[in-house]
Amino acid sequence: MGRWIYYTKRLARRWEKESTTRGEPVVIALDAMGGDRGPTANLEGALIAVAEQPGLIVKLVGRQDELKEALGKSFLPEEIEIIHAEDALGMNEPATLALRRPNCSIIKAVELLVSGKAHGLVSMGNTGAVVASSLVKLGKIGGVERPALMTLFPTLEKRPSIVLDIGANVDSRPEHILSFAEMGSLYAEEVLERKRPTVALLSIGAEPTKGNSTVKEAHKLLRKSTLNFVGNIEGGEILHGTADVIVTDGFVGNTILKFAEGSIGFFKRIAKKGRRKNLFSMAGSVLMSGGFKKLMREFDYAEYGGAPLLGVRGNVIVGHGKSTPLAISNAISLSYVMVNAQIDKKIASYMRLKKENVENENIRDRVEPPRENPD
Amino acid sequence: MGRWIYYTKRLARRWEKESTTRGEPVVIALDAMGGDRGPTANLEGALIAVAEQPGLIVKLVGRQDELKEALGKSFLPEEIEIIHAEDALGMNEPATLALRRPNCSIIKAVELLVSGKAHGLVSMGNTGAVVASSLVKLGKIGGVERPALMTLFPTLEKRPSIVLDIGANVDSRPEHILSFAEMGSLYAEEVLERKRPTVALLSIGAEPTKGNSTVKEAHKLLRKSTLNFVGNIEGGEILHGTADVIVTDGFVGNTILKFAEGSIGFFKRIAKKGRRKNLFSMAGSVLMSGGFKKLMREFDYAEYGGAPLLGVRGNVIVGHGKSTPLAISNAISLSYVMVNAQIDKKIASYMRLKKENVENENIRDRVEPPRENPD
Which of A276, A336, B167, B317 is deepest in the core (most CB within 10 A)? Predict the structure, then answer.
């Protein structure tokens, strides 16, 4: 089991208390048709999750007959409920198509959130479709111009760093990057329980004058903000654990995430080739394989579960299409953590407070004109 | 020795013929003060290079006394000449400062190129300063709006892919990306001797509609061009060897390159930690270490030498500050290859031809008006 799964599990245990003191169950809607492995993997993921998390109910949204077939002769535990959805959106279909197909599993799952019948949503399906449906059906939190997808990157330090946006937006403006930083910082503080989390801006040099025009402007906004901004970092520092939160435009974030995922395959293949070379290294590789596998998993984002979508009015997690049942259970656990931490409400109240402060300042400016020099 | 060094050496051997048929030596100016290891590493790199490449002369530009001290009691072979330069630019000094310091080693080295006393330039110094000095002193090739830095990325296939721009430009316009593609394609064809090299555009989805606004426009330009354009690829495919040339804006290219470099340190540290765990894996790691080291080197861009700066009137290579003598010798070999291949002249004639074609087409349009339908 990778360090990732350990990290999510520890997080879930920490947030269990919150769930038990509230007394009512946490209901997560799972898009059972999403992901490359279909209903079977989603069903198995839900079974693992409910066995582990107390006070958790999973609503499996998908084709009833396929889910029953996947279940076989086993019985469904009472913590899992099947919600029938006739339609399912393919991984490569246009994202906006989901909105025109009211019976598809993604839409039905989002609607459970809208009606309050579920507190969190997890989908391993078409990322664009989940983002678009959540945006339209749930709406944005007031004050957030663009929601962002975040993920955790492993670091050399014991704790991972939050990186966002990893693909919900391209052509971000400086103000968007500022709001990614605010949301990431709140997530680090409220969900991961880090005090006064540090925020870094991804650039191509430490100096504020380095970077493209958006990054240079974003640097100024971040420096003026109340966040614990520690300056620019370069791509090489992402895995160093230099900051709790690293912000960037979704084009760059997505490219790096995909590159990191791709490099696992690269290392695996090269290692495999090396292994065949001689008997000594073959013996070595057998002994090392456990450690090596673990090392590779450290970089395998599919293991970790999913990417929270911050800035919409609800708790939404988009997972990797390739997710295994274990990864799906992990994404459900993460959703359970987010619901208990009420991250969406905390972002909303932060944005409200920020708006009030700005308004108060404006009023003060009008009421108290700048004092003139007595001389 | 990594696969990289093997690749450059093989390339140099292939281009030796060109050098011997021409009959005159290839002169490379080496900025001896550049890089973190100073004159000693540069001197050692030059010694390795001249011993390997026939018909190669290296002009070491730097402080004479420091270079003589580094040489100790050894004799300088006749293929190495010291050109005294009193001043040296620090790695973290502003790039444009070089232009105001006529006695610094970078400027003196660039001037050797301008005066024709050297055919190629190699520097492990401040990237920005080398790019700025080359741009101002040598000038751009007509038709190239912005020069680009390129590098080779290892791939799962036997041959590496060219990636550019890796940091000479930010906020690239679609036309800049087209010209990166043209220069990269010429490099692949003329220097690496690949027939009809494939060109891919880095984006966040295979579809032409995916990506930011610059990438979407660049996709259209590339599709209309005469290049062998194979479409968009995502970050995860960079190491798959899908295309000979991968084009992107310098902000993205630099971030990925730095991330890739940073991930080596990450893998090394994690592997080291794993090693200590138990006796079995320790024994394993001793056996594996050779293979593992090789694997890590595959990803170590410092090993490979340097990044050619394409689009200026001259052969310029910027190396990694951390370069070892072996890496420096490798960069010199690469410069030797570029000089023999006359890549700068080939880019210039491609751009001239393109301009003529456009003009001819315009003339044809004026001379032959579009035929009207005879009916």
Answer: A336
Minimum CA–CA partner of A273 in chain B: B291
B96-116 in b/e form (b: 16+ CB < 10 A) is: eebbebeebbbbbbbbbbeee
ipTM: 0.88
Residue A231 neighbours by CB distance under 10 Å: 17
Nearest-CA distance B250 → chain A (Å): 9
SS3 B23: coil
As annotated, the residues of chain A forming the CATH 3.40.50.10950 domain(s) are 1-144+311-369
Where does B151-303 sit in CATH, by number?
Answer: 3.40.718.10
CA torsion through residues B293, B294, B297, B303, sign: positive
- The terminus-to-terminus CA distance of chain A in angstroms comes to 73
Could you check whether the bond before residue A165 is cis, i.e. omega within 30 degrees of 0?
yes
Q: List chain B pLDDT tens, one digit each, 375 residues.
A: 345 566 777 888 888 888 777 778 999 999 999 998 889 999 999 999 999 999 999 999 999 999 999 999 889 999 999 999 999 988 778 888 888 899 999 999 999 999 999 999 999 998 889 999 999 999 999 999 899 999 988 888 778 899 999 999 999 999 999 999 999 999 999 999 999 999 999 999 999 989 999 999 999 999 999 999 999 999 999 999 999 999 999 999 999 999 988 887 776 666 665 544 444 444 444 444 555 566 556 555 545 668 999 999 999 999 988 888 988 999 999 999 999 999 999 999 999 999 998 888 877 766 665 555 655
Question: Cβ contacts (< 8 Å) between B131 and chain A: which residues?
Answer: none
For testing the chain A interface, which of B166, B247, B266, B273 should be mutated: the one with the most A CBs within 10 Å?
B266
Q: Does B204 touch chain A (CB under 8 A)?
A: yes
Structure token digits, residue A133? 């449906």
How many beta carbons lie within 10 A of that of residue B132, not counting itself? 20
CB contact under 8 A, A284 and B280: no
Q: Is A169 on the interface with B (CB under 8 A)?
A: no
Using a CB–CB cutoff of 8 Å, tell me whether B263 touches chain A.
Answer: yes
Give me the architecture of the A1-144+311-369 domain, per CATH.
3-Layer(aba) Sandwich (3.40)
